[in-house]
Structure formats: C-alpha cells, structure tokens
Recover the amino acids of this structure.
C-alpha cells in the first residue's frame, strides 16, 4: 500500500509552467525527499499528489488507481505543513481527533488512537492545551499526531522543520526517521535543505525549475551526480567546481572536487595547486579552510583534520585525489 | 519631581475634561431625579425651578416604576436590541462569507453593501416606513396588491379558476400599528447595521489561514464542517465586538421609534424619557438613571462575554 506514480504530470498557473511534464515513481514504504532551491516547484508537486492542486495534464496513481480526479480527502494521504496548520480554537486532543471525527469513528477508537499517538510523540501532558500554548516543536508534533491517527497510505511533509531552531530540527529529523522505520509507511518529504535530504531519504529527488535533475539514493547522488547542478547542490560543504585551464587538463568543461577529497600540504608537490588561506573554520572535529588564489575557483573549500594549525595568510598546497574528480561536459552533464 | 509626576500632570487636563463630561450630566440627572421638577405647573409654580426644597426622595423612582409603560419599555428595549443583534450577526456572517469569494464586480458590491451605514437614522426610518413598509403607497402595499391582482386574474382561468377563487384577498400589514411598530424598527435598523457587521466579519475572514483550510480538507472536512469548526470559531472575536458595540448603540434608539409610530405600541427607555421630559423632568431623570443601570448591567454582561473570547 502506498505506491505513488506520477505520469506525465504538468502544472501551469495561467501561463507559467511550474512543472513541465514529469514522471516519477515512489515505491511502497519508501522515504522520498524532494529537494531543490526555493521556488523550484517542490510544494506544488506535493500539493498535486495531495490533490490540493489540480494537474493541468497527466495522471497521478496511488496503488495503481488513477486518483487524478479524486478529492483530496479520498486519496488516503495525510499532510504536515510548514506552518503546522493546527486548528487554533481546538485543544491538542480535539486537533488530533479532528480527522477521525470527520470520518465518523467511534469515541472509544478515537481515544485509543489519541492516547497511542500522544504517547509516541510525548504529548500526553499537553492534550488539553490549545496550540497557542505550545512551543514550535510541540506544535509540529501535534500536526504529526493528527496525521498518524488517520493511518494514511502515505505521509506528505512540506518543509515541516523549517520554522524550528537548528537544535530542535536535528532532534525532530531523527524522530521522523524513527517514525518511518516503525510505521513502514510511504513518506514524501519536501525540503530545501540538502542535509535533511541526505540524512533522511531512501530516495532523493533533486528538482530545479520543476525539472527532475536526478533521482537516487543519497550515496548515489553524492558519488555520481548526474550534472553540475546536483554536484553543487548535494554535499556539505559544497563541491568545488573549476572551469577553464584546470578543467581542460582533464578534458572537461568543468571539474568538481569535494572539500573532503583534497590533500593539503605546506610544501609544494607535483601537480598541486598553490593558494593562501582566507578563513579557517575550526569545528573541533574538522577544519574547513577557504583558500584563495586558485584559478577557476575562488575560494576553494577544503576539509582537513580537526587539529591542523593554519591561519589567515598562510601559503598552502592542494592536491585533489584523482579518483574523486568529477568531470562535466559543456552541457553540464557528467562525463563517465 | 519623581518620574511619574510629570506624566500624571500632563494627563490631568484630559482626565478632568472627561470627568466633567461624564460627571456633570450624571450628577445633574441624579439631582433632578430626587426632586420635584416640572416645566409647567399652574398649581405649584415653585416646582418649576430646581431646588433642594422640592426634595422628593425616591418618589420619582416610585412614580416611574408604577407608570404603566415602564416595564413594557424595558422589555421592549431588550426585545428590539436582542432581535437586531440576532439578525445582524446571522445576516452579517452569511453575507460576509458569500462575498469573501472572488467574483467579478466584487469591489462595487462591497461599496454598495456598506452604503446603508452612511444614511442618517431619521432618513432611514422615513424612507422605510413611507416607501417600503407603507401598506398603501409603499413597496409592501404594491406587492400585496400585485399578488391580489394575479390571484384575481386566475379566477377566470379554465379548470383551476374555482381553486383560486377560494383564495382570500390578502391585506397588507400596517407597520404603524401597535402590534407591528416594533418589527418595523427592527427591520430598518437591521438593514442599516448589517453592513457594519459584514464589514467587520469580512476583514476577519481575510485573515483566515488558508493552510488550516487545506489541512481540514485533507482531514475530510466538507464545506459545512470547515465553516462550523474553522470559520465560525475564527469569527468568535469579531462577533463579540459587533454584539457589544451594537448593544450599547441600540439601547438608545429614538428617531426610528418616533418616526414609525410616535411610540404607539413601541417604547424603549429613551423614548419614555422623552415623553416624561415634555413636562416632568424629575420623572424623566429617574428613568434616565434606570437606563444607566440597565446599560451597565448589559455592558458588564457583554464585557464578560467578550473578555472570555478575547482571552482564548
Ligand atoms: N497559486 C499559485 N499561482 C501562481 N503561481 C504559483 C502558485 N503557487 C506557486 N506558484 C509558483 O510556482 C513556483 C513553485 O512554487 P512552490 O512549489 O511553492 O516552490 P517551492 O515549494 O519549491 O519553494 C513558484 O515560482 C511560485 O511563484
Ligand atoms: Mg514550498
């Protein structure tokens, strides 16, 4: 249950085509993440699946059944919004009960599910509060609780953690991942944050301007980005991209090398690039060094060990690990 | 000078102004309500000048309470105000929800909807009672006559003519009559004040959260459930405000009552005050004090209610 297929789906708002024809399959039980820069059509795609937007053309299938014309509530999907979208006049208990009440479920069954959901989400003490009396993280948990009790075919999340502070975000990320492992239900998760995508996804769908740039597991995208956009988008810190003479040496239009695949030394070596240290960010476990003066890429970022002693203005020599160099042709595609 | 003295000092003139504004009329009303004071008396000319020597104690109050219209006026005040509140809130919510959806000519419709609010109460009353509710010349009379004519013309129709000839001629309702004059006032004030409710509710509807609605749609809520569980609670606060402002305003209705039937079958406390004030200022003042007490009871009651909604 919960296999979602998009066939040739198109979405236009008046004249602007937000989603050009697009095909995508999300397998049953999969955790799929749509990731891409802001405004690329992730939310629109999710809303098309939910039925909150009508597809201009194409079909949406859930478990093989064409639901393109089916109303949102009949699709068996639950959605969690960035703004939580809780009902402000109802208590937490009533909020969570709302979908069950709309479905005409018995009082006893409702209470049972509310108790279970509240327990798993640490909300038991807050059931009689109103959303306005909760913190952001608690509100998001209530929204998730409201989704869980429906026992949907699939969960849809639209940037659910964007309104939370960084520390809470990491915690909630884990909770949602654990929930997925426990429930084994299909989840589609929209985010603009590639770290969230990498840490949570079984399958990442990278979008740009409504077009799918690449679909694959986090490691696939990391190891073999299909084009320059994916290469630059996935991975933190970003991959260094060089064009011009340095790239021509490798018979490519652009080459990319990740910060963690560059060896550094304080002495000149054969084939190495020479630069000066701009800023060194000491994180303890790692040091990110931003280096100026390398042609075609300024600054170049390098990841080094935590106890390296470098400071602003130091001369430094970089040698990329040859087996980790990504080569891209003129049209931005990967050269194998 | 401590840091609070200067602000206090600067506030003083305004506070004194307000006190004078409130206390002098209230004090004079209280004073007059405890003395014998009439505008005209051949028998007791000394009563025509207000003075403590004409002290009457609670006599004026007793007189007012025993006058035949007093209880009726209070009851009628509450009836009129309650009916207007009920109708304006329901119509206001319905119209606001209807015109909140985008449609062509929306701007024009909104302006026209607000326009009754800018008509003077007396003009409003004259227009309604003469041009719409009048049983002969008004729309009321014309409509009833039209219906009667249609029925009369059906009397000669083949086959069904006998059926229509059984129908009686309908008489138009006269809204100046003892039994109906209160309804006339309720209708015209409702017409005038519904726009106010619509305006406030419309503003509130525009701040309704779209995502909440979408969440409700996904949760399986139909149009009615969305209205019942999202829109209506969202409107709770504006409804409380509309009720409160209107209650205070409509307790002092006067022009409409005067114009519709000169108080025939339809009095409220202000109108009673007006009647007493033709001669008996003492009784008018005592009625005024009753009106103040009634308004305060209602205001406290409403403030509680509004306060509760505001707290949530
Ligand atoms: N209702 C709408 N009407 C017109 N344009 C819209 C509407 N909703 C979204 N868009 C446009 O579609 C594009 C994609 O929006 P969205 O899916 O919200 O992006 P994302 O969620 O990836 O940030 C944006 O350029 C946005 O301006
Ligand atoms: Mg979005």
């Amino acid at each position: 249950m919960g296999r979602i297929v998009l066939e040739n789906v198109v979405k236009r708002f008046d004249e602007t085509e937000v989603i050009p024809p697009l095909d995508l399959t999300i397998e049953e039980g999969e955790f799929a993440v749509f990731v891409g820069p802001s405004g690329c059509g992730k939310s629109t795609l999710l809303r098309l699946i939910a039925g909150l937007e009508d597809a201009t053309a194409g079909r949406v299938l859930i478990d093989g059944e064409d639901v393109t014309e089916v109303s949102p509530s009949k699709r068996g999907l639950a959605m969690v919004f960035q703004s939580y979208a809780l009902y402000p006049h109802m208590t937490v208990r009533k909020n969570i009960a709302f979908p069950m009440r709309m479905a005409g479920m018995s009082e006893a069954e409702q209470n049972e599910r509310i108790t279970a959901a509240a327990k798993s989400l640490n909300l038991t003490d807050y059931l009689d509060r109103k959303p306005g009396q909760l913190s952001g993280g608690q509100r998001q948990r209530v929204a998730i609780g409201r989704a869980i009790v429906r026992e949907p075919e699939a969960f849809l999340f639209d940037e659910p953690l964007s309104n939370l502070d960084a520390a809470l975000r990491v915690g909630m990320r884990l909770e949602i991942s654990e929930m997925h492992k426990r429930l084994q239900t299909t989840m589609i998760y929209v985010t603009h944050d590639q770290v969230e995508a990498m840490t949570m996804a079984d399958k990442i769908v990278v979008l740009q301007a409504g077009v799918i740039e690449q679909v694959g597991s986090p490691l696939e995208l990391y190891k073999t980005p299909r084009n320059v956009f994916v290469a630059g988008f996935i991975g933190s810190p970003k991959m260094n991209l060089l064009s011009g003479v340095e790239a021509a040496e490798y018979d490519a239009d652009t080459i990319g090398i990740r910060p963690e695949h560059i060896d550094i030394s304080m002495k000149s070596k054969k084939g190495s690039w020479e630069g000066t240290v701009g800023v060194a960010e000491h994180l303890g476990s790692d040091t990110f060094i931003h280096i100026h003066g390398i042609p075609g890429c300024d600054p170049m970022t390098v990841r080094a060990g935590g106890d390296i002693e470098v400071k602003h203005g130091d001369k430094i020599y970089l040698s990329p690990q040859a087996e980790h160099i990504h080569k891209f042709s003129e049209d931005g595609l990967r050269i194998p | 000078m401590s840091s609070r003295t200067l602000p206090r000092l600067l506030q003083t003139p305004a506070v004194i102004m307000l006190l004078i504004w409130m206390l002098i009329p209230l004090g004079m009303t209280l004073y007059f309500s405890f003395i014998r004071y009439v505008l005209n008396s051949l028998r007791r000319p000394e009563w025509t000048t207000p003075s403590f020597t004409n002290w009457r104690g609670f006599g004026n109050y007793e007189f007012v309470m025993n006058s035949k219209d007093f209880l009726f006026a209070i009851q009628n005040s509450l009836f009129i105000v309650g009916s207007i509140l009920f109708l304006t809130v329901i119509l206001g919510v319905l119209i606001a929800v209807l015109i909140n959806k985008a449609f062509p000519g929306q701007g024009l419709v909104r302006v026209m909807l607000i326009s009754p609010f800018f008509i003077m109460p007396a003009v409003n009353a004259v227009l309604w009672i003469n041009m719409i509710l009048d049983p002969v010349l008004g729309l009321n009379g014309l409509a009833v006559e039209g219906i009667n004519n249609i029925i009369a013309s059906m009397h000669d129709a083949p086959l069904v003519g006998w059926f229509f000839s059984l129908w009686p001629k309908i008489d138009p309702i006269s809204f100046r009559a003892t039994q109906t004059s209160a309804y006339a006032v309720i209708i015209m004030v409702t017409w005038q004040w519904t726009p106010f409710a619509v305006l406030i509710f419309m503003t509130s509807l525009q701040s309704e959260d779209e995502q909440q609605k979408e969440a409700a749609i996904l949760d399986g809520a139909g149009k009615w459930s969305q209205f019942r569980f999202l829109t209506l609670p969202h409107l709770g606060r504006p409804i409380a405000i509309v009720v409160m402002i209107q209650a205070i305003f409509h307790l002092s209705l006067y022009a409409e009552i005067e114009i519709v039937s000169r108080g025939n079958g339809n009095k409220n406390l202000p109108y009673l005050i007006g009647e007493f004030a033709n001669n008996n200022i003492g009784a008018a003042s005592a009625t005024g004090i009753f009106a103040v007490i009634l308004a305060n009871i209602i205001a406290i009651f409403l403030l509680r209610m509004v306060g509760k909604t505001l707290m949530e």
